[in-house]
Design a protein that fits this description.
Elements (H helix, E strand, L loop, with lengths): L7 H20 L12 H7 L8 H19 L3 E4 L4 H7 L6 E3 L1 H7 L15 H25 L3 H4 L11 E4 L7 H14 L3 E4 L16 E2 L2 H18 L4 E6 L6 E2 L11 E3 L7 H10 L4 H11 L3 E2 H8 L2 H11 L6 H11 L18 E3 L3 H11 L5 E4 L6 H14 L4 E5 L13 H12 L3 E6 L2 H34 L10 H4 L1 H11 L7
Parallel strand pairs: 1-13, 2-3, 3-4, 4-6, 5-7, 6-11, 11-12, 12-13
Antiparallel strand pairs: 7-10, 8-9, 8-10
Helix pairs in contact: 1-2, 4-6, 6-8, 8-9, 10-11, 13-14, 15-16
The protein binds alpha-methylisocitric acid.
The site of alpha-methylisocitric acid has 12 residues, from helix 5.
């Protein structure tokens, strides 16, 4: 049955042409760094039958050029997070890119705000990107129309900003299974994003107040997620960028032991105690707080990785032999146990089931080596890499980027000056803090973001004005806002007719009335 004429030859020819076009796209120097585990045929079979193009692709190319230029110059783009289009209309005067942070969206763009547990609806951030992108188009259009009202000579004196700063957005962990990740990627592209970042965190498992912040997923799941996004970008035929963020360096748990590539870092008990969950349940029944019961158990359990457990029991010589065979990428616990049995005289007790959390997570040893491994493994799927670090440990920053650059010398990196960074406490001098961004740029960290400026940053401004308004009423508004914004250089606001879009509205009336709108 068919409602169109069934020309099988034409259908086959169109499919083969599509396959050839995709293969050509993939050979483009712009995509040379990418490797896919799937074929052009598979992508062609997943495409629509009508051509569709997305501004996201254009913005992706624009971002690529901006960042590549920084890489070549050893400089970087410094931006910050916002969800507010008016803020974007100002930041483009100094920033080349805009960041839409999940944490900010979760706090101010949803019906039920809250801490950054990435527990907001999966389409929250794409919707904010769409809002911002459309606002950028508005500012771009009204500026262009305003300029075109003037002669070429007059335009030399008018301001001109690039409002279409590429948007980088937080894709978090993809929000569930692969089909959700695919839909998320699709929505981001449709919204006009230039790049999204996707991480290796588990959904729904952040707990900050009790110090059990983050949980990662196995390497295999991380790979699948990123592949799903790359596949969706390919299906849509866009040059939208994908940033592979990795949180392994500062996470406390992993959801599963299924992937041997993670076994080196999974922590077990080396004392044969009752399981942690049972100890906590009993302790709490006796009136102990959760954290106290947990920490008591942890202090008795001899928590360490299997390799460390072997080191405790082996002689120096035995351990050296063991390490040479058993400590390498991807060696499973089963294999490690076999090697230990063969080489170490003493029995090594190690049980990674005992410390499992109530939710079933396994304990994880955060460290730089694992982010290096994950970053290198997934690099061919993405355009950039971000090792999320809570603490400004310069040694770790240098180690991570140097190691990845040994394999991918042209890799571009991102860095987030996330939440609680305390440079003084970490021993940084004022000079080091000042040159921090420039020093990182030399490591290839071309995109640097202060993601959550909009919380404390806007709060400071709002609190200051609210006090003045309460104290001085309209006199306060006139002095604090109205007068300074009208004095040259005039601040953007409703009083500036071009900014507010008044000339644009007039132009609509004029064109409809058949009048001329250019000189
Ligand atoms: C970048 C981030 O994902 C965000 O949502 O803005 C957060 C920010 C933060 O915790 O300060 C993150 O780094 O996880």
């Amino acid at each position: 049955m068919s409602n169109v004429s069934l020309d099988l030859d034409a259908e086959e020819a169109a499919f083969q042409a599509q396959v050839a076009a995709i293969e050509k796209e993939w050979q483009n120097p712009r995509q040379a760094h990418l490797q896919r585990p799937y074929s052009a045929e598979s992508i062609a079979a997943l495409r629509n039958t009508i051509p569709i193009t997305y501004p996201s692709s254009f913005q992706g190319d624009k971002l690529w050029n901006i960042l590549k230029t920084h890489l070549a110059n050893g400089t970087c783009e410094k931006t910050f997070g916002t969800t507010e289009p008016t803020v974007v209309s100002q930041m483009v005067k100094h920033q080349q890119t805009v960041y839409v942070s999940g944490a900010l969206c979760g706090l101010s763009e949803v019906q039920h705000p809250g801490c950054d547990h990435a527990d907001y609806p999966w389409d929250t951030v794409p919707k904010v990107v769409e809002k911002i992108f459309k606002a950028q188009l508005f500012h771009d259009q009204r500026q262009h129309q305003f300029r075109m009202r003037h002669s070429k000579e007059e335009r030399a004196k008018l301001e001109k900003y690039d409002f279409m700063a590429p948007i980088i957005a937080d894709g978090d962990m993809g929000f569930g299974g692969l089909t959700t990740t695919v839909k998320l990627a699709k929505l981001f592209v449709e919204a006009g994003v230039a790049m999204i970042h996707l991480d290796d965190l588990a959904i729904g498992l952040k707990k900050f107040t009790v110090g059990e912040g983050r949980t990662v997923v196995p390497t295999s799941e991380y790979l699948s997620r990123l592949t799903a996004v790359r596949m969706q970008f390919d299906v849509m035929g866009t040059n939208t960028l994908l940033m592979c963020r990795c949180d392994t360096d500062r996470s406390q748990f992993i959801t599963s032991t299924i992937d041997p590539r993670d076994h080196e870092y999974i922590i077990g008990a080396t004392k044969d105690l009752d399981p942690l969950v049972e100890y906590i349940a009993q302790g709490m029944a006796e009136g102990k707080p959760y954290v106290q019961a947990r920490d008591e158990w942890k202090s008795q359990a001899g928590l360490m990785t299997f390799d460390q457990a072997v080191k405790e029991k082996a002689t120096e010589e035995e351990y050296q032999q063991y390490a040479s065979k058993a400590i390498a990428y991807g060696i499973s616990l089963k294999e490690k146990r076999r090697i230990a049995k063969e080489l170490v005289k003493q029995d090594v007790f190690f049980d990674w089931e005992l410390p499992r959390s109530k939710e079933g997570q396994y304990m994880w040893k955060p460290n730089v080596k694992t982010i290096v491994e994950r970053a290198i493994l997934v690099a061919p799927l993405g355009d950039m890499t971000w090792a999320r670090m809570d603490a400004p440990v310069w040694k770790d920053i240098v180690e991570f980027h140097t190691e990845v650059r040994k394999v991918y010398p042209d890799r571009m990196f991102a860095f987030g000056f996330t939440g609680m960074y305390n440079y003084e406490a970490a021993g940084f001098t004022q000079e080091q803090i000042k040159s921090f961004s420039d020093d990182m740029a030399k490591l290839g960290i071309v995109w640097q973001v202060q993601p959550i400026w909009s919380v404390a940053g806007l709060n400071i401004t709002a609190e200051k004005f609210s006090k003045e308004w309460q104290r001085d009423g309209i006199a306060g508004y006139i002095e604090a806002i109205s007068k300074p914004s009208r004095a040259p250089p005039i601040v953007d606001g409703f009083h500036k007719l071009s900014y507010a879009g008044s000339y644009l509205a007039d132009a609509f009336f004029a064109v409809v009335a058949g009048e001329k709108i250019v000189p």
